[in-house]
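Researcher: Sequence of UBC core domain-containing protein follows. Predict its structure.
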Amino acid sequence: MGSEEGSLDDITTHQSIIPALITATASRRTQIKSNPDPLLHSTFNPSHIPMAKVPRNFKLLEELEKGEKGIGDGSCSYGLEDGDDIMMSNWNGTIIGPGHTVHENRIYSLRITCGEHYPERPPTVQFISRVNLPFVNQTNGVVDPTKLPVLAGWTRNHSIESVLVEIRREMASFNNRKLPQPPEGSTF
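Model: Prediction complete. Tokens:
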């Protein structure tokens, strides 16, 4: 009778095993609390997994697609200077000056160059339209990367869009909103 499935002996054996398992589990919990094993008892955190770096051209293709769709309210736009530029290095940007500033309704044209180390290094940004801003060289229109926060603190997560949006934000800042500007339509 002891060898038949569901016999009285099996039930008695299981009844004695259950308390032993409960005791062993409680003992293991106490051991883990006093001396946790980080490999066995850590919580999964995906931010600790290094992300694969998106190749330069893939990043620029993403930016091109986004630029063709337009940014937010249309106050900033960008696209390739030449559609045949297979290296996607030379870009045009446009910023419509923010309202309630000396820049209101002005259209500013910029040239953006994404070098071979982009997006690890920031693009070179140059105004074509003349503008008076503290981070723009007044001789050639080049934006000083040390004076524009998005370029000074550049990471590969930034983009052409983030540069244009930051420049527009700086135009509207308290210190820059009333700076005297060159005549509209003048260029560097």
